[in-house]
Predict the structure.
Amino acid sequence: MASAMPDRYGRSNQKVLTGRRSVVGAQLPGLAAPSRMVKFTSMDNDDVFDRARSNRVLAADMFAGLTDEQWQTPSLCAGWTVRDVAGHMIMPMEITFGRFLLRLLSERGSFDRTADKTSRALAQRPTEQIVAILRGKADSRFTPPGIGALGPMTDSCVHLRDAARPLGLLTSPPLQDWRLALDFLVSPTARRGFVPRGRLDGLTLRTSDQEWTAGAGPLVKGPSEAVALALAGRIVALEDLTGDGVAVLRERLVSG
C-alpha cells in the first residue's frame, strides 16, 4: 500500500489500493508471492473511513446492550476484558497524539505499555460515557503517522470481534471490510504494530467465503474473519482454519 504524509490531524489524502483476489505479491517483502497476480482497484479514503465509522457504531450498539458480567468477560486480547477493549477503541478519540507521545516517553518508549495503561484507564469511565464517545466520535479520522486509513479500519474490525466472539455474539463487520483488512494485514505497513515480521513468511493464505489469496507455501484456509484474526495474533481463530500451514502459524503465534 502506497504511503502518504498525514496532515496535522493524522489524516492522509492517499487512495487505498486493494486487489480483487489478493494483495501485492512480489512487492511485499517478507511475504512469499501469491499464487497469481491481480489487477488492483483504488478505493477512496472517504469510503474506508466510512467503513470504520460503521464498525464503531456497530460496536457501540453492541456495548450498549451488555450486562455488567459481560463487560468483565475476557476478550480475545490477552489480559483485556471486553471493557478494556472498549476503552482501547475510544483511545484515539479521547487522547491527542501529543498527549500519547508524552505518555509514551514516560513509559520509556514502550508503545504496548502506553496503550495498555491508557486503554485500561479509559475503560474505567462509566459505561454510558464509553458508548456515547464511541458512537458520537465514530467518524474520527485519526491515523497513526505512516499507517493510512486501512489501519484504523482494520482495527475496528478486529476489536469488534475481540469483544463479540467471547460473548457468543455474531456482531461482525461486512465481508468486504474483512477483505480490506486482509489486504492491509499482509502489507508491509502492517508490520508497524499489527503483524510482526516473519509471521506470514512461506504460507499461502486463502479465504473460503470470498475469492482472496496471498502468499505461497503450506495452506492456511478459512473464513475471512478467522484468517484476519489469526494474522492479527488471535490464537483462538486457528480453530476455524484448515491446511498444512495452520500448525506453522500456530507455532509462530505461540512463540510470539
